[in-house]
Specification:
Number of helices: 14
CATH class of the largest domain: Alpha Beta
Bound molecules: cytidine-5'-monophosphate
Largest sheet: 8 strands, mixed
CATH architecture of the largest domain: 3-Layer(aba) Sandwich
Helix content: 25-40%
CATH superfamily of the largest domain: CoaB-like
Strand content: 15-25%
Distance between the termini: 33 Å
Shape: elongated
Number of domains: 2
Oligomer: single chain
Length: 404
């Protein structure tokens, strides 16, 4: 399984002679597991046809910013969000300059500005242009902004010059893209994640539940499996596909989720509680459908066990990570929840904001641990999950270092 497995790569092709190598790059990225969509500038279409890249990528090539038909399909903001990586190869001197200025006057530069995904560029130009201080300044600006620069290589150039400026070979660019997605951080470890809502039955046809979509927990399961963990996903009822290489255990009520989670103890290294577990359940679930009669009815509820607190208190406790969905004083409440439940880490998110949370594909959060924190600005749940997995791996390494 390549490190780009399940990753969406948006390949930007700009107008340089190296554009002919972009065809091979599409192939190499796919070989590494990526789904590739291509965006071309007008200049690029002078060097290679959109049809070639469409045929190889299996998707229409995006070219214009103001194209009503294209926007009706996958609009530019959707495309920017779709990407897990935006890779510009070849990136001409002009493209680097426009990116450094933050221009947004064509589709590619707009996408580069709009995307929350990492941006990588593979410069390709004549050695004189590469050596020019203007290009050097642009590269420095882009580097300080966190843009990843791969290459250029040295050697003979299409114009007859010899020197630095050739685009790296497609296989090297694909390798650099793969290196961005650290795999293997959790190799050999077992991770369990709970996800989705629970349903607390009142009778055979009714239940108490909540709006949790399960998307965040499923994204964590996917990121954990990609990082090499043997991953078990204990999920309440949701309509989501099981991520590749993940073992899914389906449960319905909080008590079922509790039993499934505790059954993992002894062979679980990391536990992430992402489920929205119902705090209460009806004292009794009626064996037959409850008939309507009186104008009012009383339900007696009893507290459900706190699954994650039980996991954290277990004699064979794993590294335990919880979630705290709060609407006010988010960080304070989250920190006190982490201490109360005995967790190693907690992900605090503000569910009062309108642009993330329950049913959204996006989320912003602060990851807290006893002596540190990491703020993750609004991004896809997939990216947040990867950041969380990176942070868990880093903290476990630190803990192991302290013990050693
Ligand atoms: O106490 P609160 O529900 O706000 O805590 C949220 C965290 O605790 C989440 O990680 C959630 O999965 C977990 N939890 C649990 N069992 C419960 C309630 C919450 O594991 N009964």
């Amino acid at each position: 399984m390549g490190r780009l497995y399940n990753r969406n790569v948006l390949l930007g092709v700009t107008g340089g002679i190296a554009a002919y190598k972009s065809a091979q790059l599409v192939r190499d990225l796919q070989e590494a597991g990526a789904t590739v969509r291509v965006v071309m500038t007008r200049g690029a279409t002078e060097f290679i046809t959109p049809l070639t890249l469409q045929a190889l990528s299996g998707h229409p090539v995006h070219q214009e910013l103001l194209d009503a038909d294209a926007e009706a399909g996958m609009g530019h903001i959707e495309l920017a969000r779709w990407a897990d990586l935006v890779l510009v190869a070849p990136a001409t001197a002009d493209c680097l300059s426009r990116l450094a200025q933050g221009r947004a006057d064509d589709l590619l530069t707009t996408l580069c500005l709009a995307t929350p995904a990492p941006l990588m560029v593979a410069p390709a130009m004549n050695q004189g242009m590469w050596n020019d201080p203007a290009t050097a300044a642009n590269i420095e600006t882009l580097t300080t902004r966190g843009v990843h620069i791969t290459g250029p290589a040295e050697g003979s150039q299409a114009c007859g010059d010899v020197g630095p400026g050739r685009m790296q070979e497609p296989a090297d660019i694909a390798a650099a893209a793969q290196a961005l997605f650290a795999a293997g951080q959790l190799d050999g470890l077992q991770l369990t994640v709970t996800a989705g809502p629970t349903r607390e039955p009142l009778d055979p046809v009714r239940y108490i539940s909540n709006h949790s979509s399960g998307k965040m927990g499923f994204a964590i399961a996917r990121a954990a499996a990609e990082a090499g963990a043997l991953t078990t996903l204990i999920s309440g009822p949701v309509a989501l596909e099981t991520p590749e290489s993940v073992n899914r255990i389906e449960v319905s009520s909080a008590l079922e989720m509790y039993d499934a989670a505790l059954a993992q103890m002894g062979h679980c290294d990391i536990f992430v509680g992402c489920a929205a577990v119902a705090d209460y359940r009806p004292v009794e679930s009626q064996p037959q459908k409850i008939k309507k009669g009186q104008e009012t009815m009383q339900l007696e509820l009893v507290r459900n066990p706190d699954i994650i607190a039980a996991v954290a208190a277990h004699s064979q406790r794993p590294f335990t990570v919880g979630f705290a969905a709060e609407t006010q004083d988010v960080l304070d409440y989250a920190r006190s929840k982490m201490h109360k439940k005995g967790l190693d880490m907690i992900v605090a998110n503000d569910v009062a904001r309108e642009d993330g949370g329950f049913n959204s594909d996006r989320n912003a959060a602060t990851i807290l641990w006893p002596d540190g924190s990491l703020e993750v600005p609004l991004t896809t749940k997939g990216e947040l999950a990867r950041r969380l997995i990176d942070t868990i791996a880093g903290q476990r390494r630190q803990q192991a270092g302290k013990v050693a």
